[in-house]
Amino acid sequence: MDKIATEKTGDDRLDENEYIPWNEKDFRLFLEQKCKLSKGNKIMDRIIKEHDQAFYFWEELIGMKLIEFPFYVTHIDAHTDLKAGYPSNALNYILENLLHIPISRRLKEFNRNEMGPANYLSFAIACGLFNNVELVIHPDFTYCDLPILLFKDCTIDSGKLEMKAYENKVLQYSNFNNPISKDQEIPFQINPLKKFQSQDHYDFLIFCQSLGYTPKTADFMIEIIKEYIVKV
Fold first, then answer.
1. Closest to 91 (Cα-Cα) out of 146, 51, 157
2. Per the domain annotation, does 12 fall within a domain?
3. Using alpha carbons only, what angle is made at residue 207 by residues 81 and 67, rounded to the nearest 5 degrees?
4. What is the SS3 assignment for 30?
5. Is residue 101 part of a domain?
6. Domain count along the chain
7. DSSP H/E element including 185
8. Residues 52 and 120: beta-carbon distance below 8 Å
9. What is the pTM assigned to this prediction?
């Protein structure tokens, strides 16, 4: 899209006169040159409508033994989907509850009512799904929805994700220097859209329609994506 929509509109589509998607030529160039997709060498895919459906797709792949975790993920989005305060105060839940559970049990035991389209990536990180996270950002991206508590030394510049467990109510007192425990660090990169270039061929693709953040004029991309994928 030419600009970022910041407030979800439910399933009401964005004004197509205000939000302009890429044209077909630019979209195909991005898929083929930046992402190394090929119509002659299709990869497995899932087309979804809401972002958190990606989490359940990863679980399916793991359950079918089509992928082992942890794995490398490239997240291309105008939003980070790490916004742990939406739809509930999920950051408290992650830091004060989920991270107290042994990492081998989190995927089965966490409270899924706390997870939504804007924070599912934080839950995936907390459940140990990734060994590397790459975020490809929009030219107008701002860093306001990157929760610093999820990073090593509470700074994005560390280039490392580090999930830390805290005592209950610690967030009320801003005492972040004494976590109970820490997960293993995970490399984290932020790449501007123009500088992004995949170094390897991907095994799986998830394409999200994101009804509340796109106009109907962007839906043509779904048919183009189908030329490069095999549905799982």
1. 146
2. no
3. 85
4. helix
5. yes
6. 1
7. none
8. yes
9. 0.93
